[in-house]
Amino acid sequence: MKFVDEASIYVRAGKGGNGCLSFWREKFVAKGGPDGGDGGDGGSIILQADAALNTLIDYRYTRSYQAETGEGGKGRDMTGSKGIDLVLTVPVGTTVIDEDTGETLGDLTRDGEQLKVAQGGLKGLGNTRFKSSTNRAPRQTTKGTEGEERSLKLEMKLLADVGLLGLPNAGKSTFIRSVSSAKPKVADYPFTTLVPNLGVVKVKKHQSFVIADIPGIIEGAADGAGLGIRFLKHLVRNRILLHLVDLAPWDEITPAEAAVIAVNELHQFSPTLGARERWLVLNKIDMVPEDELEERCQSVIDALGWEGPTYRVSAISGEGTQVLCLDLMTALDERRLLLKESPEEREAEDEMRRQIDEEGRERIQSYRAAKRAEAQGDGFDDDFDDDDYDVEVEYVK
Question: What is the DSSP string of 264-311?
């Protein structure tokens, strides 16, 4: 199964059924009068979050959806049947955007949550409705109205409390394997992680949080290099970012340089996301000679001008991870309590997420526009499709 976290679809609600023009005709009944029934309302288009889904792959191949039209009215005051609503299931964490206006229609963040994206057309009225003391044989009816139609963009973002940020081989996958039951692929080469992974970290009984392992970013990620621009948006809903830095890098880049590259790419993708709460995690301390450890750690802190929380861990041995997870749980609990009690904080949180969404969307659209212009300028792609420049990868069992 492929991992697809964006899709564009066209939806059209059903038209309302027309009202009926009819008069009662029955033997021995003179001048029976009007008996035309109303039509039925058209079906609406509804999106529903489903926790069993983890990708938008179905909407990559089927892009047009139409709800059922309402049935027309009939004689003997019979109302036409209502068109059946069309319910489309999407993963939890899907944002729905009107492509024509850029308006965000809603976020589906809970299993079973629904969002009506296209209202069905209203029913037409039969001639019975127009009967009066002065109009005993009305011939007026109304037609059902057209249903709403929309071009929608669906964006799936992982729902996690904590997100892991860092260059390839910083040890993010090893860290999530160490602190949770998730088992992402781990190997001694870069770009091992090709899709986001989620893990549940159980700190104490009835206390846990969700952590997301995002594919590593490289220099130029915000401009489309590597996988970074595709997955940076998944950090939007994380309340805390853990910036993992490899203290024993496999290539010639120093830990300080690696740390600066990751932060710069984060700020270029979205300045607001760059201002999100972030903790520094210095990883692989067990692979650094003891007499060099302090110097390497301090070089990263100095390069970033870092004044926030700092942790030294070894993801592979688990050293330092328990303290980090306990502190994360405490901070997340305090944040949840604050959001619960303060409407101002909730409003500020929602505004920050909207701003990150907007900045990230503009960055991705700018990248795709540049790639489209490049392809058309070379004359090699007369039938350009944005999907040509999306990364689609298969899950590895």
Answer: HHHHHH-HHHHTS-EEEEEE-GGGS-HHHHHHHHHHHHHHHT--S-EE
